[in-house]
Structure prediction request, 164 residues.
Amino acid sequence: MKKTAIYPGTFDPITYGHIDVIQKSLKIFDKIIVAISNYNQKNNLFSIDERIDIVNKALFSDLRLNKNKIKVISFDSLTTDLCKKYKSNIILRGLRAVSDFEYEFQLAGMNRKLNNNIETIFLMSDVKNQIISSRLIKEIADLNGDIKKFTTKSTIHSLKKKYE
Prediction:
């Protein structure tokens, strides 16, 4: 039986930290659903359609990852409902630092309460990617800083266009 994992997030924009988690998860699971949240609690820089386009370009054009193993979607429901829809009992979450753990631990616990068949798998990004956050990338890009070490070429292009 093929194992599918759901990797939810805002991906505003996608970073090498996110990509690191995706690449590591491909070694464990048969299919990864990169689920881009359209729940508008955050002030996103990019619209949901822009984020889907940016993630697709980063994964499939810039990095040429396998389209048969990764699906990029948007969602505006509970992640546990998304798991039901895609017949997955695995939620992937990336951890950068200890400061992420408390929030992620609470989130995993709530998801488990909503559906006790769901397991949350935490993957650490490589040390070189642990400092990267979408928020900081946006700030650096807005101030015309160099973000080549943090995200893909197409994502950089999208950020530059947004801040023109």
User: Anything to note?
Assistant: The CA atoms of residues 141 and 159 lie 7 Å apart. The chain has one domain: 4-162. The mean pLDDT is 95. Strands lie at 4-9, 31-37, 70-75, 90-95, 119-124.
